[in-house]
Amino acid sequence: MMRRAGTAMTTMVIAATGILAAPAAARASEAPTHCVLRSAGGTLTNKCYGNLPDAIRDATSGKVTATSAEAAAMEGTLVKRMESANPQIAGMAFTSSTYSGSSVILIGPHSCRTKGSSWTVNFAPLESQFGARAAWDNRFNSTVGMNTCSSGLAQDANFSGAYRQARMPRNTTEAGAAPFNTYSSIRFGYTPTPEEFISYCNAAGGMACNFTADPDVTYKNGPKVLTARPVNCSDTAQTLTVWAGHTWTNSSSFTFGVTTSYGITGKWPGIDAKLEQAIKTDTTWESSQTTKFEEQVVTNVPGTSSMQVYHSPVIRVISGKAVMRLGDAAAELPWSREEAVPAGAGFSGAWTWVPSTLSPGDCTSQ
Questions:
Q1: Using CA atoms, how far apart are residues 276 and 253, in angstroms rounded to an integer?
Q2: Residue 35 has pLDDT above 70, yes or no
């Protein structure tokens, strides 16, 4: 039975051997603080503010002025403005799971555009170094990477421990989850390209890539396909029975343009197999690369004319997220598969008839 998937995954876990620590006790209620942590020449400096717009203004040397509403939403447009103003901003960390609450803007010693580059900050030493600031350790739960940096939090120092987030452009841990309020370090690093992710996923096995086992399934009407064109050369209307049919090619694709068809060895044969298995897990699907429709159709054709017989197939769209890992980084790459089916979710394949004129040669004597 078809079913629609739940919410998309927001955090990918890289688990190490060990027992997850229990969430830290909730801290006493405090006014939010928003800091700017800079790294230059191996030295960290920090300055805190009572509101996020002031911290953003500091981090961008006064080039970006954000309203309180813009800062609270942290939409992509604000992020792009901050990136343009300061290419050294690695990203931000927030105390809540919803990219809000107290925050810190981290300005790194270098950009993340160089393959293999990374920057790790341990929180515990900051407690003594910047004592005037509210606690750092066991505090942050969501992150936003900037300037091509991906980011992730880890339970122990030096991006280690029983639980650590795979680096992604945005990461969050829901309140109440085991590692919430237990993170002691953050890492920013180079974000592999989609092609690098998928190439690695295709070549490697096991945990290199994973596909949602419960894809979203929707239906839509497909385009009209011409299947037959019966002609009537007599002067009187005739009822004709014709065989009408066509073949639909089923295919799947990733959003950045890699297209695969099942049953064909393409550019990414390993991806084909993993997608196929994910879809088979929880849906009834067309296992062949094509779906064939053929039917005897009764058609009324007026005298000295023809009739175009069209078929509109039902298209089942199966979509999900391919979660791919490359080192300690990960990406969620949306994928979809479209396949023609006889019927589904209130949709049924439709036959339509469009009157047409005769063409030269239609009624030539045999």
A1: 12
A2: yes
